[in-house]
Design brief:
The protein has about 350 residues and is α/β, with parallel strands linked by helices. It has a domain at about 1-180 and about 235-270 and about 305-320: 3-Layer(aba) Sandwich (Rossmann fold), CATH 3.40.50. It has helices at about 10-20, 40-50, 60-70, 85-90, 95-115, 150-165, 200-210, 235-250, 275-285, 310-315, 325-335; strands spanning about 1-5, 25-30, 55, 75-80, 120-125, 170-175, 180, 215-220, 230, 235, 260-265, 270-275, 290-295, 305. Helix 6 (about 150-165) links the parallel strand 5 and strand 6. The protein is globular, with a radius of gyration of 19 Å. The structure holds nicotinamide-adenine-dinucleotide. Nicotinamide-adenine-dinucleotide binds near residues 7, 35 and 60. Nicotinamide-adenine-dinucleotide (NAD) binds near residues 30, 81 and 122. GO terms for molecular function: UDP-glucose 4-epimerase activity. InterPro entries: NAD(P)-bd_dom (IPR016040), NAD(P)-bd_dom_sf (IPR036291), UDP_G4E (IPR005886). Keywords: Carbohydrate metabolism, Isomerase, NAD.
Length: about 350
């Protein structure tokens, strides 16, 4: 299949592209490199030995999208382009609503105009909000997400649901990611956060390599076994395969079915606490990882893990890599690329 991957130069995108190319698909990346670099795509070429076509530009640019759709015959779009920093989304919400929500509208409009109606959309477990029973199934009551970033994801899901209802020829798959971590087993691509990492694993890994002094653990008084927050971490290579399975499922399904929007959790089904992650990373890296307990961070939920059984049943997909593997691969990437792609 010929696939347009928006945001394909980012952390998740590069791993998906490797997986797509290895399975014989044809890829075109659209990325404005606002949170990534061309170097990441060169690394993908080193891993796969395959040439990657890319266009530097924004999903907000309707004219550019029209040009791309008019000149390439895409079968599907995997839409990852978005801003994702939860904290920044609270201090600068307009930036998030514009890029994520308006960007998705502009992209969907172009797809509709050119009759490309198969879409895989990057959503997030943050759409579930707080106070929901664990594990989270796709039909767990979607509550109010705890931050503007999460609300952009929920709004985009709602827009896409309306779009699918309006026209049976759309085929849309929404993938709700839990916490993607780790790196490609080659150590050539991985997460390269700008400035202070927002997520736990890249932070822990920067402490292990000596770039930062200690990990701040936000709260140890949650209702969890050791009091620290519990999350469902998923290896990035497992997550990438989930996209390819979803894409191939769309291709093999009959078009025009009544269920033309499907939602799947991509998680392992197992939660780990912050302290368990620190301990596992310390074992994987052989480094001591100092940490200190600080007060809770606004917007964080106590616990969050997936029920991934629907993905297994319908997509034939299941995460296979465990926490130690995630830490080993994150460490391998960190040690070999202490300054990321720079
Ligand atoms: N990493 C996570 O923890 C996580 C969890 C759940 C969902 N997601 C979602 O997965 C997707 C990919 O996340 P990621 O971790 O790879 O982030 P990332 O920042 O590494 O990748 C996103 C890419 O999109 C590009 N981009 C942003 N705005 C764009 C625009 N207007 N036009 C073109 N390109 C644009 C960036 O340059 C970057 O390369 C995002 O939609 C994110 O919200 C990520």
């Amino acid at each position: 299949m010929k696939v347009l991957v928006t945001g394909g130069a980012g952390f998740i995108g590069t791993h998906i592209i490797v997986c797509l190319l290895e399975r014989g698909h044809d890829v075109h990346v659209l990325d404005d490199f606002s949170n990534s670099s061309e170097k990441a795509l060169k690394r993908v070429k080193n891993i796969t030995g395959k040439f990657i076509r890319f266009t530097k530009g924004s999903i907000l640019d309707g004219a550019l999208l029209s040009y791309l759709f008019a000149n390439e015959s895409f079968d599907s779009v995997i839409h990852l382009a978005a801003f994702k920093a939860v904290g920044e989304s609270s201090t600068n919400p307009l930036k998030y609503y514009e890029n994520n929500v308006v960007g998705t509208l502009v992209l969907s409009r172009a797809m509709k105009n050119f009759g490309v109606k198969r879409l895989i959309f990057s959503s997030s477990a943050t759409v579930y909000g707080d106070g929901v029973q664990m594990p989270l199934t796709e039909s767990s009551c979607v509550q109010d997400p705890t931050n503007p970033y999460g609300r952009t994801k929920l709004m985009m899901e709602q827009i896409l649901t309306d779009l699918a209802k309006s026209d049976p020829s759309w085929d849309i798959t929404v993938l709700r990611y839990f916490n993607p971590v780790g790196a490609h087993s080659s150590g050539l691509i991985g997460e390269d956060p700008n400035g202070i990492p927002n997520n736990l694993m890249p932070f822990v890994s920067q402490v292990a390599v000596g770039k930062r002094d200690k990990v701040s653990v936000f709260g140890n008084d949650y209702d969890t076994p050791d009091g620290t927050g519990v999350r469902d971490y998923i290896h990035i290579e497992d997550l990438a395969l989930g996209h390819v399975k979803a894409l191939e499922k769309q291709n093999s399904d009959q078009r025009g079915s009544s269920r033309n929007i499907k939602i799947y959790n991509l998680g392992t089904g197992r939660g780990y606490s912050v302290l368990e992650v620190i301990e596992a990373f310390s074992r994987a890296s052989g480094k001591k990882i100092p940490y200190e307990i600080v007060k809770r961070r606004p917007g964080d939920v106590a616990k969050c893990w997936a029920d991934p059984s629907k993905s297994e049943l319908e997509l034939g997909w299941k995460a296979t890599r465990d926490l130690i593997q995630m830490c080993r691969d994150a460490w391998n990437w960190q040690v070999n690329n202490p300054e990321g792609y720079e």
